Structure formats: structure tokens, C-alpha cells
């Protein structure tokens, strides 16, 4: 009979080694790809296009090594404490479905209706899916957000977002 609590170190395997292996492989891949980058003709000085990816790859390999050593010495990640979540609760698939519907509606309506209208539908649908039941206030905020972001992108960033049926008005 084990005296360890459920989820304790005696019941856990060495699954953290998989994370270390993944980080090490990702770091090696990053280093190899950085070394295979072609030399830039416009690069001046000692720092070329592969400097940052190589440094990140080296750091990933070092972190993977430290993690592997820690796991081999008995170190374990702390299990989820559930401070602000209910661990026994179930997923709220209705909310996920409503959010997915709002995003899909935005993707389908952005060209024919334009961003100002499809964005308002997205923002209002997201607020509704997340539990807000102030329909008029949410609609007003959604319209202000969608038109505001449209003007920010068009006037502030010089990027064109689809106008749709409001072409000639905006």
C-alpha cells in the first residue's frame, strides 16, 4: 500500500522527459534550419539572419537538458491545484459552440457584408456566448468596436479591410 497522495511522485512516470525530448528536438531543428539559411547579400556586420534562431535553438537545448536532469533527479511538475477552477466541472460545450458559430459567421460574412457589420456580429455573438444578456448595450458596443477597428486599420495603419455593403458610405 502506497502512502503517496493521488498524483504524487510515486504514481507518476517520467512523462516530463517527453517534454524535455520535444524541447531538445525543437532546439536542434531550429539550429539546423538556422545554419541552412542562405547568406544575405545585404547583411552587414557579424550578425546575420541566422543569429537569433541559432541563439533560441541553443537556449531550447540547454533548457531541455536542465529539465531532463531535474526529472531524472526526481523533480516533478506540481499538479493543478484548482484554485480558481472547478476540477470536477464539465466542459461548457454550448459556449464553445456559440463562440465557434460567431467566428464562422464572421469568416463567411466578412466579404459580402464587410468588416464593420461582420465584426459587429462577431463581437455581439461573443458577448452573448460568454453570458451577457444586455442585448442593446452589447449591440451598441459591438458596432462601436467594429467600426472603430475598421477605421483604425484603414486610417491608422493604411490596411484595407472589406467594406462590403457599406462601400461608398464609409
Give the SSE map.
Elements: H1 16-35, H2 51-72, H3 93-113, H4 115-129, H5 135-156
Q: What does this molecule look like?
A:
This protein is mainly alpha-helical and 170 residues long. Helix content is 59%, strand content 0%. It is built from five helices and no strands.
Q: How would the global form be characterised?
A: flat
- The whole-angstrom Rg is 25 Å
In terms of per-residue confidence, which ranges show pLDDT below 50 for 5 or more consecutive residues? 1-5, 7-11
Order of helices and strands: HHHHH
For the secondary structure, the number of strands is 0
Q: Number of helix segments? A: 5
Structural class: mainly alpha
In short:
Helices cover 59% and strands 0% of the residues.
Tags for this entry?
disordered N terminus; 170 residues; 5 helices; 0% strand; mainly alpha
Amino acid at each position: 500500500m502506497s502512502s503517496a497522495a493521488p498524483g504524487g511522485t510515486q504514481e507518476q512516470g517520467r512523462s516530463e522527459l517527453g517534454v524535455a525530448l520535444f524541447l531538445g528536438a525543437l532546439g536542434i531543428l531550429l539550429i539546423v534550419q538556422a545554419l541552412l539559411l542562405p547568406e544575405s547579400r545585404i547583411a552587414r556586420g557579424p550578425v546575420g539572419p541566422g543569429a537569433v534562431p541559432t541563439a533560441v535553438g541553443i537556449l531550447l537545448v540547454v533548457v531541455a537538458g536542465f529539465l531532463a536532469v531535474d526529472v531524472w533527479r526526481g523533480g516533478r511538475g506540481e499538479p493543478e491545484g484548482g484554485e480558481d477552477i472547478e476540477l470536477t466541472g464539465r466542459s461548457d460545450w454550448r459556449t464553445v459552440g456559440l463562440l465557434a458559430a460567431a467566428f464562422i459567421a464572421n469568416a463567411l460574412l466578412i466579404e459580402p457584408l464587410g468588416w464593420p457589420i461582420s465584426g459587429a456580429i462577431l463581437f455581439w455573438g461573443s458577448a452573448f456566448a460568454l453570458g451577457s444578456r444586455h442585448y442593446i448595450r452589447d449591440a451598441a458596443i459591438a458596432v462601436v468596436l467594429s467600426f472603430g477597428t475598421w477605421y483604425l486599420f484603414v486610417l491608422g495603419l493604411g490596411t484595407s479591410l472589406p467594406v462590403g455593403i457599406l462601400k461608398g458610405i464609409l
